[in-house]
Amino acid sequence: MLFTKKRKLQNPHILVAYFSRSGNTRRIAKAICRQTGGTLFEIQPRTPYPPSYEETVAKAREEIQRGYLPALKERAGGMKPYKTVFIGSPNWWGTLAPPAAAFLAEHGLAGRIVVPFCTYGGSGIEELCGTVARLCPQARVLSAFEAYGPKAKTGAVKRQTGKWLRRIGMIR
């Protein structure tokens, strides 16, 4: 681990990649990044989702049912140094949002530790971990973190994130 001039913890071996529609998953990703010293990477589809929640829900449901993985705006450059990849997504229809699934499918994560986290509005983690394991068959997938979306804005979720990171051995 390295420290910058501001004494900020940096860990060049951790990537925190996330897709967030409304900002809830982004908040969790930033909390993980601050606590682990990892590098933050936002996953963005090349074609953005509609601004309307209802339209996004309909489009996401169709994509998930078809197994569609959207083209991404950019790839995370140079995956080689990362030994641990956190993958964050809202839980859409019980699984990863298609952009997060596309990220996992596009990046070779064999031999790495993959750590899922999600935010949800109606249902919890459900099939999300199974999807991650299926997309990363040669990776070691650790137990996931989940947070009710609107509560992602609270200090309690940041504390819960810290407890989870300690439990899975990512921080002391």
Word description of this protein:
This is Flavodoxin-like domain-containing protein. GO terms for molecular function: FMN binding; oxidoreductase activity, acting on NAD(P)H. It comes from Christensenella minuta. This protein is an alpha/beta fold. The protein has one domain: 3-Layer(aba) Sandwich (Rossmann fold). Helix content is 33%, strand content 22%. Strands 3, 4, 5, 6, 7, 8 and 9 form a seven-stranded mixed sheet that branches. Strands 1-2 form a two-stranded antiparallel ribbon. Helix 1 links the parallel strand 3 and strand 4. Helix 1 packs across helix 5. It is globular and about 40 Å long. The chain starts with a strand and ends in a 5-residue tail after the last helix.
